[in-house]
Predict the 3D structure of the following.
Amino acid sequence: MTLLSIAGVSRNFGDVQALADVTLDIRQGEFFALLGPSGCGKTTLLRILAGFEFPDRGAVRLDGADLLAQAAHRRPVNLMFQSYALFPHMTVAKNVAYGLERERLPRAEIKTRVSEVLETVGLTALAGRRPAQLSGGQQQRVALARAIVKRPRLLLLDEPLSALDKKVRAEMQLELKRLQHEVGITFVVVTHDQEEAMSLADRIAVMDSGRVEQVDAPVALYERPRTRFVADFIGANNLFPGTVTGGGFEVPGLGPLPCKTDLPNGTAVLAVRPERIRLGDPGRGAADGTVADVSFYGGISHIAVDVAGHDRKVLVATQGPARITPGAQVGLTWNPDDAVLVPA
Amino acid sequence: MRSLRKRNPVVFLPLWLTYVFFYTPIVVVIAMSFNAGSSAYTWEGFSLKWYGTLAGNADVLKGLGNTIIVALGTTLVSTVLGTLLGVGLARYTRSKILEALGTMPAILPELMLAIGLIIFYASVNFTLGLHSVLLAHMTFGIPLVAVVVRVRLASMDMSLEEASRDLGAGPVPTFLRITLPGLLPGIAAGALLAFTFSLDEFVLAFFTAAPTEPTLPIVIYSMIRFGVTPDINALATILLTVSFTAVLAVQRMTRLTESFK
Amino acid sequence: MSRRSGRTLARLVFLGPGLIALVTLAVVPMILTLSFMFLKRGRFNGVIYEFTTENFTRLMDPLYLGVIGNSVQIAGTVTLLALLLGYPTAYAIAQLSPKWKTIALIAIMLPFWTNFLIRIYAWIILLSGPGLVNSTLTGVGLIDKPLEFLYNEGTVVVGLLYGYLSLMVLPIYSAVERVDPRLREASANLGATPLRTFLSVTLPLTLPSALIGCVLVFVPSFGNYVVPELLGGGHAIMLGNVIRDQFLKARDWPFGATLSLVMILITLALMLLQALASRRSRHA
């Protein structure tokens, strides 16, 4: 069931086009992520949803109602800031209660809800402290609690894990997922870290240069990218530009490569994941090459292969230590179903 | 690089020169205020008598009273309007024109503003008095407070205000509960600066005051024009002390020097 | 309340009162002043509402043009001296340790916030016949009888310099502080002497602020009348003095307004020049 529908939203800052005709739907109760490199527009979109920016064109509807017509302080949307933005002159409890006080709820109810939410995030013992006295992880929980306690229809999180160190980050990841399930609020996370997005979200919108490249579940993004950018951005991938002609895919200098030809004739790019490529004897595979480098990462080996006619090294990943050495001649093969064609 | 760390003492020569230039006259005046003799130049022993004479000088006392009234009034109005203006310019507009309007009066020569004001006052048949001086001082006071507030605001985290609005507070409640508390040191500093400025201001006062109600700087001006007398030294010392204290207090409150770094 | 009108209301509340006050007290009077240029002088005071251009013809009198030129020259001298003394001073402060920096800056600012008249008075004390400077010089035997330090153009220059030097030091100090130390280190690393580093790195980067300092010193110096009056003793007439006399002695307000226009124009022209120059250097 659609909670939020964004239609044709565009925003320019002077010459820079931050958002270009962005359209996507977010469903009730899901954990959604906006993923992309810096400058892709994800933060601008987030701020538009929160009410701190306004699009030049387009519409945003929440529960069917026009969201853009409402001022920021009247929207049933709350934002967890990247810097947490905790009010330094108020205690944790006061910070959390702030939003409820704005709603003019009775004191008793405010008290109850504040202590409830503090317990949910595990900060009951710190209710009387000031933000300056808390650690990064604790501050983040306060910011989270402050936003959740208002029971918004939509909770926006701006790079929630970027400021945390590695160990705390892993903990918070699980925390966030658990919280979202428990509270049932729709979460929208903005991040540039694909691991974060892939592990947290039910669905991800990959963005680049103001456009939405693809919206899909993590697995689908990984296995079936639909644009070149997504194929390149998500995980490691091998890309071969070429042409689709009458039932096959031809790469100049390499010849035909196996893949599912589900695109019309014309230029296209073939993407095949490193772990899907098998090494065999030269002459027997789709392409031949010389092993340039072998690196062992514990569970996985990364083998870089120089292929004549291709400007970048092909990356192959195998389980366990590789039994091959640099300089060896190899042939590369893969299952046609494992290779994806994307538009050039 | 080692050579950069070693600070050539010659570099500091201009600094010392400037300080000698700045403070010699001041030191001399302060020293002479304690001079027992009636000459303003030769030392005849330590005495506080000129402070006594000063306390009995009716003109000086009247000027002082008027000046304090004007300064307090100007500070009050300028602080309120200047704070609002400073916040407005920082948060609610990007117009360069408005920005120029809000700061320009402080950059123009005082003589220009003074001339403009007497013409204006004459055109509307405005009777002169302390109130006309008060209004005149506002032309400097408002931009002064506005600038200090803006500097303070620039160093404040804007996401705090956004968080407040996100949580349901409109622009005015956000201002009162979140922005203002953080701004308080800056507002206090601006108020103190406006007060000090009004206390010492001469040109605007000279043109816009009523002849019968002079401010202290006007009194001082007459005293200087009619010849150097020792009690001016005492008056000068007192004023210097007040100003020094004010600036040090402002520095304490806002680390004013930080805004130059 | 829709978001648009809420925002407009906020704008009004914050910007309204202050701007209205400033417009009424500064802008409107300015406009009135300028309009007076075209009117005739009244018999005893004020104006007669008759259009005339005689104020402009009178302006062209070499007497007045001379005063304007003189004022520009004096203000220019002050600015130059302020630059020569102020830049090295600002640079020196930037070399201090943080604790001393703060103290040094306060020491520069303090005199600026004290009563201007008092500061001029202090110089009268120092420089007059029986004053400290003369008595020191005679005491040491360098001169026989007191020199006439006071009441000439040089004294006015010193007085103006004294009043406004701080305004040159502070912006330049800011700029020197902001120069990335790594740039200087890179220059030294590439073999440049400290002097060369200064000329090639620090100086160009701080030039815009030096220009701002120049404007900040020139404008009040140019528009000053108190210093020439008290320290110049009739031997240094600046534009400010003439304007003041027109308004208070000669009671020729229209002509005074005309002279004011000249002052405003020169002031604005300078500020414009400075803005253009700094924009050019930023794009370079």
About this structure: The first strand of chain A starts at residue 2 and ends at 13. The first helix of chain A runs from residue 42 to 50.
